[in-house]
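ok so i was messing around last nite and threw this chain in just to see what happens. nothing serious, just curious
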Amino acid sequence: MQFEYSEWDRTLEALLRSFSDLMGLFNYLLLMAAGDVDQVFRWLRQLQDRGQLDPDVDLEEFRRSLETERIIERMKDGSYSLTARGEQAIRRDSLARIFSGLTKSGFGEHRVPHTGEGDERLTETRAWRFGDPVSQIDALGTISNAVKRAGADEISIREEDLEVFETEHLASCATVLMIDISHSMILYGEDRITPAKQVALALVELILTRFPKDTLRVVAFGDEAREIAIRDIPYLQVGPFHTNTKAGLELAQGMLEGSRQANRQIFMVTDGKPTAITENGEVYRNPFEFDPKILNQTLEAASACRRAGITITTFMLATDPSLQEFVEEMSRINKGRAYFASADRLGEFLFADYIRNKRRMVY
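result:
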């Protein structure tokens, strides 16, 4: 089933102000269109007809350049689709745009607060100990020690002269990103699913390029919860679904319990209260109020994650007071965290927390 956005004027005008380059706009619109390349070009032509896109931009030439660069490809029926290279381009663009908002706050690696054998070399040095790898020897420091000991006339290096660089441990982390695909994620003309997909793609690219020892898996939850493949993130759509947070947490917990990483966490992006649970294979729904049965079972799922050593960080895209109270209670039970963020700053909040989580001590 296909769903279309309506009332595009304000949204597209805002996008034009946000993106200085056509490729960035194209990538973002692709996420809004769930990967429908032809729909994106219809929107671009619409923008140009309204005078909101530079009339000198040759959209046909732009399309041909995307084909040449193998970002898109033409199918047998004449339509266009995104290639694997195009999917990677969206991930890279998403990562770059999110990190442009993080640079002022500072970006660091996943460090833990003690030194020892690890992957990241520090400027500090210490005396060599048996078992230290040869690759960590500080040549200048070692020679300096030898000269201090015996003079510069005839340099001879002994074991006590050896100096090595300190290193930091880099913690590995297993993360499940839960994305709410209930109908409220596009309700009332506010698009929250596109920023959620952009963050998911950027997180994938971050892990692939910067933290290859980490793992990321993605769960979409509506009436039910299901894992989606990384390559399917751009094509994710919302549906006429309720919010079965409990099913999402249970699925994510099961996925993480099979992980070998010391740090295991759930990042949940949502904009509404839990309105559904699964009982005996059937989905019980109550979208009209805070249903005690649904809420209690959802809180129990959060507690089960805590007992399994899994932290839940909730990124709430709504600020309803009663909803805020529920999220804070869930965070208290799980000993997790909660952020109430606007959709346009979701990436900054999530990435700052992801990086911070990796600075914890790993025993």
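not much to say yet. Residues 3-9, 103-119, 359-363 have pLDDT under 50 and may be disordered.
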